[in-house]
Amino acid sequence: MLFAWSGVMNLAASSGHWKITDWFLHWAMRSSVRTHAAFTSPDDPADARSLVSAAGHFANSCAVCHGAPGVKPSPVMQAATPPAPNLAVNAKEWTDKQLFWILQHGVKYTGMPAWAVQDRPDEVRRMVAFVRRLPGMTPAQYAALVGESDPAAPLSQCAGCHGSDGRGRNAPDMPILGGQSQAALLAALQGYANGTRSSAVMQQVAMRMTPEQMRAAADAYAAMPGLGAAPGPIPNADAAAARIVEQGLPAKQLPACASCHAPGKPYPVLAGQRASYIAQRLRQWRGDDTVVDARKSHATMPVIARRIPDEMIDPLARYLAGR
Predict the structure, then answer these.
(1) pTM of this structure
(2) What residue ranges do the domains of the chain occupy?
(3) For residue range 169-192, what is the model confidence (pLDDT) as tens digits?
């Protein structure tokens, strides 16, 4: 204690660690990750069905420290102690469950932050799958996933993931934004920026946008074709799904989807939305058994989603997508 109080101990990052200190810290870190990941990480820690949003978030948040295929890490960040590892090499040293735990919770004393929100394991799963592919990924493959565009171009903050046409680059985890309500798009961006909507991926983008940029993006995507087309006959429509959309399930206190989400309503338009995205979000809102307060506006959808029967999520998503 006296030695630490004296200030003689050199804590300068430029001095690095003694070899024994470096070994001990890494040994303790690996032991901690191994143990906690074994007991707390999900059994399905990686989701490789779509990597577009993970690639975009990696480019926005991770590449500055870790680098990426064809992209060198920042020399400023590499001057940290310890420097961020090259994941094209380092990722091979961890299991998927261990990568999930590191990404979700971060690692103390290393500069590795936790995931910005703790209630979006779906985002973490996609990032695990993305990091797992880094060792064999070429610069061209990385650039294609990131969807790099001219920073000066309109919608440059959005098009990498959502596409310049608002179709979400046909990625199953990306919503269709074209034709969405301007008010809903603007409210979503504002919610991500102030933290009332939960997404580490979107918060990182929205917090950097000015109010003018938010309005311009909302106006542009709302004016594109896409959602909310006039409904017509749906071949082989699921009658039970149609009933939930139009009438709800009164016995379960489940209101009709159309009461809030039909075109012209003040909430997001769902008609024509990607089925995989709708199903994914409903399952995410269902979450675990944590009690939610339905009186709070941000908790409305978790309450609604829990009242939808499990077996109806996919049929409901397909029905809404086909409208």
Answers:
(1) 0.89
(2) 27-144, 151-222, 239-322
(3) 999 989 999 999 999 999 999 999
